[in-house]
Design brief:
This protein is α/β, with parallel strands linked by helices. It has 5 domains: about 120 residues, NAD(P)-binding Rossmann-like Domain (Rossmann fold), CATH 3.40.50.720; about 150 residues, Rossmann fold (3-Layer(aba) Sandwich), CATH 3.40.50; about 150 residues, Succinyl-CoA synthetase domains (Rossmann fold, 3-Layer(aba) Sandwich); about 60 residues, Dna Ligase, domain 1; about 110 residues, D-amino Acid Aminotransferase, Chain A, domain 1, CATH 3.30.470. Helices cover about 35% and strands about 20% of the residues. The chain is built from 23 helices and 30 strands. The protein has a 7-stranded mixed sheet with strand order 9-8-11-10-12-13-14, with helices on both faces. α14 links the parallel β17 and β18. α3 runs parallel beside α4, α12 packs antiparallel against α13 and α18 crosses α20. The longest helix is centred in the middle third of the chain and has 17 residues. The radius of gyration is 31 Å and the shape is flat.
Length: about 675
Amino acid sequence: MPELHRLLAPQSIAVVGGAPAERVIRQCQKLGFEGPIWPVHPKRDQVAGIPCVPSLDDLPAVPDAVFLGINRHATIEAMGTISAMGAGGAVCYSSGFAETADDDLQSELLQAAGDMPFFGPNCYGFVNTFDRVALWPDEHGLNLHDSRHDRGVAIVSQSGNVAVNLTFQQRGLRLGTMISVGNQARLGSEDAVAELLTDDRITAIGLFLEAVRDAQRFAEVAELARARGIGLVALQTGRSAAGALIANSHTGSMAGRAAAYDALFARYGVAVVQTPSEMLETLKLLDNGGPLRGRSIVSLSCSGGEASLVADRGEDTALRFEPFETAHLAKIKSTVTELVSVSNPFDYQTFMWGNRDAMARTFTAVMDGPHHATILLLDGPNTADNDPSSWYLAADSFADAADATRGRAVVVATIAECVDEPFRAHLAKRGLTALLGLSETLVALEAAATVGDVTRSRRHAPVSAPSSTRMLDEATAKQRLVALGIPVPSGRVAGAADVVAAATEIGYPITLKALGHTHKSEAGAVRVGLPDATAATDALAAMPDTGAGYLVEATVTDIVAEVLVTVRRDPPIGWLVSIGHGGVTSELWNDVTHLLAPVTGDEVRAALNNLRSAPLLHGFRGRPAADVDALVDLVVRLSDAVVGSEVVEIELNPVLVGQRGAVAVDALMIVEEAS
């Protein structure tokens, strides 16, 4: 693990270049950096009012951190100089390296740096308000003068411009550190997170990711974050085909597929969000109180419309708006009139609006229960023409209840702009978290309730990309499956003249397949359940010509459910195990869940139960239950056998699960060819 403290919390700084270097100096001065700043420029006497030296060799001492704001070729030369002198690290601002497919130039940069850590290239650098330093050649919105910023959250971003945008947030988030990693030539997001986890001032960490450079390193730091109680929140882009192409061209690293990333994040307890606003609101919630202890939420509002809105939007989440227990319900009812119906979400109506004691009694009764958080919907006025005093009173009543019960209390603006900065400051003073936007709030609550939850029993297996591949025919693939202990139908390969004889030997009903077709159903190359020799002969005549022969198999008749099972290499993340609704309609239903190998039986069973089609396995509408144990054993056995082998991808679709047993009746296998 590289030592990054000198770089991120330097005692001295050198800045190399013109306008970008000058902006770095201005930002450090704005934050009140107290150490020496040494500008380096061959033709100027001063930069930002500070005298220059003409070259790095003329520096008065070895700098802890260096900002390189010069062109890419000059950056390589400068990198060699500062590495040789023992500088603590650097930020490489210039572009034109791997993100433009110039991998050779990036390799030269790495060679010049030696063992010295650096962020970039193609990188904005970092702002660290805790230590009053900003190797950041642009404006930013991090506010050192906010007295609450003795602690706060950090964000690590692979996009410089997104990082800039996030610093300008006006949502009341205590954002203390922003790190932009650019191309991740030497230091990746994982290295930045690892260093941040050593800082007791950091309460939570957000990640704007285009690609994970090293999935094993990511797993290591995610495990460390969980052990230290620091929530990680990821917004991963490049999930669509177009987005992946953009991410690949931007960072020069493989973006991967969304399923593999989701499996990685779930395995190591990293919360996932989809928008910058959701990330900011989630970090805000984690910053003020840490992760939630569970998913049970109570919603308070003085409007039936708001209560219904929460109920409707909450159905799209894993949050639970559970009914109040009998004793709890009675306690709440004792604080309201008979005209108020008590439920969750709870519309407490407007009878008590403006009465702080009455509202506090009801809120206290509500919060004095087993749920994990209480939200109060409170959109208030924010212009000089309005009197917001009654909204402040409602907030104070809520804070009084939180103080009395020590419950987790969250004020929610259903419309983000309806909690302005003065109101947010008042809420913060009372210890309340203010979340902006109902949709963002529900995502944040779900993320805070699940962050740190893990689905792994051990570290996932590393993976390498294949150099070249070839596809095996189905018969050969099934022979390999038999060797692995995976059940397949009894059968053999035959020429056209021997199909009937083979069928008679195997026993009817049989399934006939013409080999050499990847998608046999679409090509008319498969017939299932042929009852006799006449049917076999007719089916053979109707099939497309093939030079690869025919696969004659016993037809599986014990069928409760059809399941898709695949294991494939998914670099740079790992070996992805996918389980879902199988058969010819699998793509139509798109009912699939994903895990990273290796997997355990318990993990596979839980994944199966998460499918929409799970009831089909457990006796849907009086149908017999499937042999789930056999299916679980098949998935685990297949995963264990494939991981680390020459297999690139194996797809079993369908696996026919009966009342007794599970059989792979179709198999597609791609293997890596030896170089």
